[in-house]
Structures are given as C-alpha cells and as structure tokens.
Design brief:
Blueprint: H1 3-14, H2 20-27, H3 31-43, E1 63-71, H4 76-88, E2 92-97, E3 104-110, H5 113-122, E4 130-137
Antiparallel strand pairs: 1-3, 1-4, 2-3
C-alpha cells in the first residue's frame, strides 16, 4: 500500500462505478497501471466488494434507530442465539458485538415508528436472551459515509 493505492481507495469508495479511465486520470496513472493496481487490491481483499448506496426514503424506510441490547447471560450460547435472531430480522441492517455496559449495538431501519415498535415488541421483546434494550432514534445524519 502506498499513497496511490490510498488515493484509488478513496475514489472507489466515493464512486464504485467509476470507469477505469476516469479513475486513472484522477490518481495520475495510465489506465493499464491503474487497472493492475485495482485488481491487486481486489485480489488481496483490501477491496472486498462493491455496493449500491440506496435511498432509504425512496424505499419507504423513514425511521432509523441505534439500539443497544444487553443480554441476561454472558455465554457463547446466548450470544449465538441472539446473533441468529438478528440475522433473521430484516429491520436489523447492522449488528455489532461491542464492549462496555451492553453486548450489542444494532442499526435498525423501519418504515415508521409503529413498525419499529412492532420490531421492538415482537422481535427483541420476545427473545429470552435479552435483558435490556435502549433505543436512540436518529433525527438526522449530517455525515454518513457507509457504502
């Protein structure tokens, strides 16, 4: 990795559909050299894939919350059961096992508050592993660089 690779990664992160010709021009390489570097970054796993950035509002998702979840048992079986349940929940778009006072941080997206309440009650509220739930409702996102 060098400064040119870093520049390539910044450009590809901003626009995964950028043409090789445009990318080469932006990073100051010939198209063939640029293509070789991108291919090497893909082979090494630094570039793990490409994604589309979706307009959540256009998809009917008008409610986002970050949710912390504490478990009632600190066992591997409890964590695995919780993680399986979260992998099946379409509202959960991110699930992170974290350090601190609770075990998990979730990013939950739903159509509206009523849909979130249903998820909170009918999914999280029914899991025997869950001991504590705290919701943080997103009111705006002035910076969001997730792909």
């Amino acid at each position: 990795m060098d400064s040119i690779d870093d520049h390539i990664l910044r450009e590809v992160s901003r626009d995964g559909r950028i043409s090789n010709l445009e990318l080469a021009d932006r990073v100051g390489l010939s198209p063939s050299a640029c293509l070789r570097r991108v291919a090497a970054l893909e082979r090494s796993g630094v570039i793990a894939g490409y994604r589309a950035v979706l307009d959540r509002a256009a998809l009917g998702v008008g409610f986002t919350a970050y949710v912390t979840v504490g478990l009632n048992a600190h066992t591997k079986a409890s964590q695995e059961a919780f993680e399986r349940a979260m992998s099946r929940a379409p509202e959960v778009v991110e699930c992170h096992n974290i350090t601190g006072a609770v075990e998990y941080l979730l990013r939950v997206e739903a159509a509206d508050l009523a849909a979130y309440k249903s998820f909170h009650t009918d999914v999280l509220g029914t899991l025997p592993q869950v001991n504590a739930i705290t919701s943080y409702v997103v009111m705006g996102s002035p910076k969001d660089e997730r792909a």
